[in-house]
Design a protein that fits this description.
Order of helices and strands: EEEEEE
Number of strands: 6
Strand content: 25-35%
Number of helices: 0
Structural class: mainly beta
Helix content: under 10%
Shape: flat
Oligomer: single chain
Length: 95
């Protein structure tokens, strides 16, 4: 029986794991920002403070079908500040 949902173990969905490229140089990676917005979940990774690290990270978008894509405007090493600007109805992520 396939429900259309990705494989999960106790609520953990391996296909949505946040990972960086293996480099060189290699970097640690973690979730710095998690924001639901307009039916999607935005995930911004934080990376090591080391110079030129964190390749393959950035802003990722998870849609209602559990498909994760890298946002086309993503920049490796973006700060994880976030704010909803009520007047313009925009989600602002970054510096």
């Amino acid at each position: 029986m396939n429900s259309g949902r990705p494989l999960s173990f106790s609520g953990v969905v391996p296909s949505l794991a946040q990972v960086a490229d293996f480099g060189p140089p290699r970097s640690e990676v973690g979730v710095g920002c998690l924001m639901p917005w307009h039916g999607k979940l935005y995930v911004l990774n934080y990376v090591s403070h080391r110079k030129k690290s964190g390749t393959g990270t950035g802003l990722r978008v998870i849609d209602e079908n559990f498909q994760m894509t890298r946002h086309p405007a993503a920049v490796d090493g973006t700060y994880a500040n976030r704010m909803v600007h009520d007047e313009s109805r925009q989600l602002i992520i970054g510096p």
